[in-house]
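Structure tokens please, single chain.
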Amino acid sequence: MGVALGGRGVGVAVLNASGGLEVAEHRPADAGLDGWTGALRAAVHDHGLQRCPCVAVAPRGSYQVQQLEAPAVPREELQTAVRWRLKDVVDVPLEQAVTDVILVPPPPTRDVANMLYGIVARRQAMDEYADMIDQAGLRLVALEIREMAVRNLAALCPEQGGGIAVLAVDSDEGLLVVSREDSLYLARALEIGGIHLRADPSQASERLALEVQRSLDYYDSQLYGAPPSRVVLLPLTEFDEAAVVGDLNAHLGASVEMLQLEQWLETPDSLSSGQQQRAALAIGAALRLRSGGRS
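Here you go.
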């Protein structure tokens, strides 16, 4: 099972034992522990999910992700080395923080430094999310970040040259995730969201295309060579999706298409594409547990 905590409510997704999507919904709720707890309790009751193992996506803004040059230390010392490096670039005191590391495959040439992603969050906030999940009647397996939930969705899509790029667009911002062979290579926040695409679709689409192209050019020139030839759009909020796909195709040097989960994931006929999109991050979280049982 996957849960995604957001400003407008909670996404809930359940995969059955065969890996098919059984539940995908978004429950409106006030942002914050009380609102999320109430929405989750209702979902647990309605779908009979008591003590179901759960991966929960932390809300945007509750953690920071920093791209760092990988320290030249043994693997067993990496977490400590990254933790100390993070203290110079984030505003969370280390004694109040939890940290983690996402390893990135090494670049093909020695001229480019090995990179990784350091993650930092306030321990108190993460503990509160864990307690909330428990109070809602679920069994927390892991807290996930949005970047990795999107990477999990990207892993469903067949890859072409250079891997695959998924462009997730929320109400306030976008998130571009580039993955290859199930590994995260690049994750970048983009300053264009659904609110901009609704207000001025043409100009916002052009700005969004520019930011995506800059990120792909960075991937090409500074990291791993040929970038993905395919970009998949994942709407997490409402806007004119077809128009945005058309505008992006007109401005990008890569083919752009909509993410169609039903092509790679068994879904009930009753689930609309809108329901799947609103629960997409929760589906990405549930995919972390896909290999075993109801998740």
